[in-house]
Design a protein that fits this description.
Radius of gyration: 14 Å
Largest sheet: 4 strands, antiparallel
Number of domains: 1
CATH topology: Alpha-Beta Plaits
CATH class: Alpha Beta
Strand order of the largest sheet: 2-3-1-4
Structural class: alpha+beta
Strand content: 25-35%
Low-confidence stretches: none
Length: 89
């Protein structure tokens, strides 16, 4: 079984801050975080979002001209984190 989450990437940090405020104003939970290693981005900040809201978020951003770069689904295979390697020894 795999664990996953979704992030939105941005071209610049200011866009991430605009996105965070816009989503909070719309009642959509987001959390700013460093861009995961699996993703390449010109900005070092990403926003963690509920994966099931990807379409709605894209539509809102398009309708309101909120600048985003891309959406990414980050997959973490269970038991593959650095922490679990040390616990299972």
């Amino acid at each position: 079984m795999e664990d996953f989450y979704c992030v939105v990437t941005f071209h610049v940090t200011q866009h991430a801050l605009i996105f965070e405020k816009f989503m909070n104003d719309k009642g959509i939970p987001v959390k700013l975080m460093p861009v995961p290693r699996q993703v390449s981005s010109s900005c070092g900040t990403a926003a963690k979002i509920p994966c099931e809201l990807e379409y709605d978020i894209k539509k809102l951003c398009e309708d309101e001209d909120v600048p985003i770069d891309d959406f990414h689904k980050i997959i973490n295979p269970k038991g593959k984190s650095w922490f679990s390697k040390y616990i299972n020894k």
